């Protein structure tokens, strides 16, 4: 038995979105040969909904695995699914499986995602993985603050999707990553597993991206390989999510140190901290000067003010005029910048002073 495209979907308490995610796979222009859903430490009806999808004869072949005692979070679930897949094809992925798509159970893929990702992989034999361009999806808000919060996340995702490196991406997206099976088998041969199983591994997608680069593979991103992912509806949930991502990134960088694969991430983080300091210290001082003396005698500040309006708006032009207007107003982005600064600084501090707790 062989599969050209296999899909792994780890799902932990995803009863709300798992059917939508699986249906987006069923609606692909190049449908997968097999879908492996790993129900991971779930306490809701995720397994029931996944099996309902698997029992539908019109859907691609789907296997539902249950992992009830998994201390290794998403990494453990993905490795469990890969182990099942390897056993199903005779012990190795290379030669029996062409591609492996990993996607979250709260993600919906563009109908041509697999078709486009396969074309990217086929364009260069050195490419080991293609990352999705992630866009936010939601129209659920109950008050102006929540609408602001969700809207800024939509802009954030859209801006990141438009600016990602196509030749050497920072990290493969957990929402949707399309791997060459040969590259994953290479990681198994090299270190015994694809995704590092350790309760301290909060960002299995980033750690695996570094491992692929270190083993000689290229990773890339493509704007046409789109994954629509859920957004965080409250400030508390948003900060928890971003602290986990940022803290996990800092932990991984600390373990690996300065290398040709980590220097860009480390430098970007340092520049981000300097940027926050600039905005809050120098920018605040200049605003105080303007408030006291006005802009008429400060042509340089006029120029900077114009730049701060035009440049952020142009960066989100692919999201439409509403997003451009929000960015041009400056204040919404400044408020969100305060939130971003908080989770970045707190993540760095927590990486040095607190331990990552294991799953119970």
Automatic annotation (TrEMBL):
Keywords: Membrane, Transmembrane, Transmembrane helix. Pfam families: Glyco_tranf_2_3. It comes from the Bacteria. This is Glycosyltransferase family 2 protein. The chain crosses the membrane at residues 261-283, 295-314. It comes from Streptomyces actuosus.
């Amino acid at each position: 038995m062989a599969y050209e495209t296999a899909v792994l979907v780890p799902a932990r308490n995803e009863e709300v979105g798992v059917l939508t995610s699986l249906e987006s796979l069923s609606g692909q222009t190049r449908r997968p040969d097999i879908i492996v859903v790993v129900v991971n430490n779930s306490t809701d009806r995720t397994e029931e909904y996944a099996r309902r999808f698997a029992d539908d004869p019109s859907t691609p072949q789907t296997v539902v695995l249950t992992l009830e005692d998994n201390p290794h979070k998403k990494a453990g679930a993905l490795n469990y699914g890969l182990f099942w897949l390897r056993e199903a094809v005779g012990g190795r992925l290379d030669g029996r499986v062409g591609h492996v798509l990993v996607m979250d159970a709260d993600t919906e893929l563009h109908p041509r995602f697999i078709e486009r990702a396969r074309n990217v992989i086929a364009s260069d034999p050195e490419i080991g993985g293609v990352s999705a361009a992630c866009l936010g999806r939601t129209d659920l808000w109950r008050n102006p603050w929540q609408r602001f919060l969700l809207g800024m996340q939509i802009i954030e995702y859209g801006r990141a999707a438009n600016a990602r490196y196509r030749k050497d991406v920072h990290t493969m997206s957990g929402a949707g990553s399309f791997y060459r099976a040969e590259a994953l088998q290479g990681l198994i041969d090299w270190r015994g597993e694809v995704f590092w199983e350790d309760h301290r591994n909060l960002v299995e997608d980033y750690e695996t991206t570094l491992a692929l680069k270190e083993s000689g593979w290229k990773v890339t991103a493509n704007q046409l390989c789109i994954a629509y992912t859920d957004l965080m509806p409250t400030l508390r949930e948003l900060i928890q999510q971003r602290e986990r991502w940022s803290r996990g990134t800092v932990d991984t960088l600390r373990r690996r140190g300065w290398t040709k694969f980590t220097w860009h991430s480390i430098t970007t983080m340092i520049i981000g901290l300097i940027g926050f300091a600039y905005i809050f210290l120098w920018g605040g001082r200049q605003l105080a000067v303007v408030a006291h003396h006005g802009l008429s005698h400060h042509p340089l500040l006029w120029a900077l003010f114009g730049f701060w309006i035009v440049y952020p708006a142009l960066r989100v032009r692919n999201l439409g005029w509403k997003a451009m207007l929000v960015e041009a107003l400056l204040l919404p982005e400044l408020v969100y910048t305060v939130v971003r600064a908080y989770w970045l600084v707190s993540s760095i501090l927590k990486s040095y002073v607190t331990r990552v707790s294991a799953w119970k």
